[in-house]
Amino acid sequence: MATADILPPFMFLLLFSIFRTTLSTNSPDITADQSALLALKSHITHDPHNLLATNWSTSSSVCNWIGVTCGSRHHRVTALDLSSMDLTGTIPSHLENLSFLQSFNISHNSFHGSLSTELTNLHRLKHLNFGNNSFGGEIPSWFGYFGELQSLLLYMNNFTGVIPSSFDNLSKLETLSLFNNNLRGKIPISLFNCKELKFLSLFSNFLEGSIPIEIGYLSKLQIQYLDHNNLKGTIPSSISKCKELTFFSLYDNFLEGSIPIEIGNLTMLENLDLGLNNLNGK
Ligand SMILES: *[C@@H]1O[C@H](CO)[C@@H](O)[C@H](O)[C@H]1NC(C)=O
Ligand SMILES: *[C@@H]1O[C@H](CO)[C@@H](O)[C@H](O)[C@H]1NC(C)=O
Ligand SMILES: *[C@@H]1O[C@H](CO)[C@@H](O)[C@H](O)[C@H]1NC(C)=O
Ligand SMILES: *[C@@H]1O[C@H](CO)[C@@H](O)[C@H](O)[C@H]1NC(C)=O
Ligand SMILES: *[C@@H]1O[C@H](CO)[C@@H](O)[C@H](O)[C@H]1NC(C)=O
Ligand SMILES: *[C@@H]1O[C@H](CO)[C@@H](O)[C@H](O)[C@H]1NC(C)=O
Ligand SMILES: *[C@@H]1O[C@H](CO)[C@@H](O)[C@H](O)[C@H]1NC(C)=O
User: Fold this and answer.
1) In the structure, which protein residues have their CB atom closer than 6 angstroms to any atom of ligand 3?
2) Is the shortest distance between the CB of 69 and ligand 1 below 6 Å?
3) Lesser CB count within 10 Å: N end or C end of the chain?
């Protein structure tokens, strides 16, 4: 008290300005989110319904912008849903500053380009849906670093290369949807460390090699589409460990041998499609 009383007024000003400087350099606020979203807006080359053009205006708070949701605790952007807005554009690296983002949905648009390092900082992401766009290039391995990820949907794009082996770290992943891309190579065994997987959709790619016996690790798997690929070898009997399986399709591959009798143990199975293979005893 006594000390405060004798502090000259300019000391308060000095302390205050140091405090403010510290605040603005160490804890980015909603203005960081605003700049990131304005950068995204500037990377949209076609917005036929003028949704962002008129609505994403600095005269209103970011949290009131269409498609934007802010969290109540930190007042930062937690969800971005621009799905089905007929947008064309690319993803700028500025989005790395949306550090509180948990859900990111730009499905059913015409976003294109490849994903290099743009989003590596978004480690809080739980849901990412880039489905039905025109993204190309490889699926970045840094998706594997997002330990909170529950759903990763990259279906109906033009992704090439292999499924990254880094996905083994996705211990909360429940949904992985990569169908309708140009993915090649084997199904990585690391994928079967995603013990929470319930929905796995890899159909209409060029995946090859055999179905790993490790598939039996996915004890919570309910739906699995591996159809329209180039898978070879036999169906592993370990599939019978996926007790929750209701939909299972291997249609249109190069599988051979006999159908494992243990499939009969899958009591939840409603739909099994093994057509267009070279299996015996069908
Ligand atoms: C932007 O859109 C949101 C949601 O439709 C609406 O609540 C808000 O008033 C709009 N803001 C402006 C400035 O048009
Ligand atoms: C993303 O958008 C699609 C299409 O509108 C919708 O079906 C889906 O539920 C959304 N996903 C998430 C995680 O918000
Ligand atoms: C993210 O924010 C920081 C601090 O405001 C800024 O220096 C940096 O340029 C931003 N990153 C991008 C890619 O815009
Ligand atoms: C893909 O998105 C487009 C809009 O960009 C939409 O018209 C089309 O119906 C979608 N296709 C599917 C199969 O959902
Ligand atoms: C997996 O997670 C562990 C611990 O969180 C980390 O040390 C490791 O670098 C991660 N590996 C990959 C490939 O993400
Ligand atoms: C997909 O990518 C390949 C090369 O990676 C390219 O030749 C092809 O035109 C692309 N297709 C579409 C629909 O973008
Ligand atoms: C699975 O099926 C096989 C062959 O029909 C049978 O011998 C075995 O006891 C079953 N295992 C379980 C755990 O039900």
Assistant:
1) 28, 32, 93-94, 96-97
2) no
3) N
Distance, CA of 201 to CA of 247 (rounded, Å) = 11
**Bridge partners of residue 232, in order along the sequence:** 210
Of 41, 55, 70, the residue with max ligand 1 atoms within 8 A of its CB, to mutate for a pocket test, comes to 55
Is residue 95 within 8 A of residue 119, CB to CB? The reply is: yes
Q: How many angstroms separate the alpha carbon of residue 199 from the centre of ligand 4?
A: 21
Tokens found for residue 151: 């759903």
Summarised one tens digit per residue, pLDDT across range 70-104 is 999 889 999 999 999 999 999 999 999 999 999 99
Q: What are phi and psi of 73, to 5 degrees?
A: -75, -55
Cβ–ligand 1 contact at 66 (below 6 Å): yes
Full-model pTM: 0.89
In the reported structure, the alpha carbon of residue 122 is separated from the centroid of ligand 3 by a whole-number distance in angstroms of: 14
Which of 86, 76, 79 shows the shortest CA–CA distance to 44?
86
Q: Which residues of the chain have pLDDT under 50?
A: 1-26, 282
Atom of ligand 5 nearest to the CA of 145: 14
